[in-house]
Amino acid sequence: MVTAFLKKNKSTFFVTSFVLLASYEENTKLQLMDADIVSMFIIGGLILGIAYLFFTTRHRERMKLFELFADQPEHFPKPFFRADALKFGLLGVGIAIGSLIGNLLYENNLLEEEIAYTSMVFLFGGIGLVSSYLILRKK
């Protein structure tokens, strides 16, 4: 009986099977997309949870130290100037200026691209580090 129906209505059978196949592929894509979204939320939640635990534990430890050594100021060092911030800041500024100057040299056909960028980035990055050394030496 089914074969007789298929012989009479071949086009109907193929259209219905195509529609069923297309809906199956859409459902599979939706399931995969749902799994991606869920995994992103799980990973994000884990990262936020670990960060929350880290900062709350750190705060509790500091409060305990403060309670134990509140009358002894030598256990709490004074804040100091971070030389790394100045060093990395001037290095970044030097690299940025070196990139700009390297681009100018390349666009004006004064040097080849690789030579222009590489030499200017190292030159101005080094100038940034030397200037940070000179600034810190004065302090």
UniProtKB/TrEMBL annotation:
Calcium keyword on record: no
Coiled coil regions in record: none
The reply to whether Transmembrane helix figures as a keyword in the UniProt entry is yes
Transmembrane domains' residue ranges: 37-55, 85-105, 117-136
Could you list this entry's UniProt keywords, alphabetically sorted.
Membrane, Transmembrane, Transmembrane helix
Q: Where is the DUF6249 domain?
A: 40-135
- Its recorded name reads DUF6249 domain-containing protein
| Biological source species | Cochleicola gelatinilyticus
